[in-house]
Amino acid sequence: MAEKKEAKETKETKATKGEAKAQEELGGNYVFIGKKGAMAYVLAVVTQFGAGAKEVIVKARGKSISHAVDVAEIVKNKSPEVSIKSISTSTEEVVTMDGRPLKVSAIEIVLKK
Questions:
Q1: Which of 2, 19, 34, 72 has an alpha carbon within 20 to 30 A of 11's alpha carbon?
Q2: How far apart are CA 38 and CA 11, in angstroms?
Q3: CATH code at 67?
């Protein structure tokens, strides 16, 4: 049981490090929406603004798009100085485990302070 817990923690740590590296490469003002609860991402956006960012970009793909919209709306409604600058949608092509190409919808919401 302890081995499974350690493996899970290691997997989560690797994912978090990968997200952090991707954010550094893209300028640091990105919040990528995944499987966590919406409030975790709201906290990430608020932290970015608290660190002095003028804009934060919320990105999501596939089923996480609705969570990205939720995060943007929660931040906008809780902070009157934050507004939505732009919303863009796209289709990204991802290769599945068995090598087939798969088209996935994506959204990018730019929040400004």
A1: 72
A2: 21
A3: 3.30.110.20
Q: How many domains does the chain have?
A: 1
- 88: containing domain: 2-112
Q: What would the pLDDT profile of 50-72 be if each residue is shown by its tens digit?
A: 888 899 999 999 999 999 999 99
Rounded distance, CA 99 to CA 37, Å? 30
pTM: 0.71
SS3 state at 90: strand
CB 46 within 8 A of CB 80: no
Q: How far apart are CA 108 and CA 73, in angstroms?
A: 13
**How many Å apart are CA 112 and CA 97, to the nearest integer?**
37
Q: What is the pLDDT of residues 6-37, one digit of tens each?
A: 444 433 433 444 444 444 444 678 999 999 99
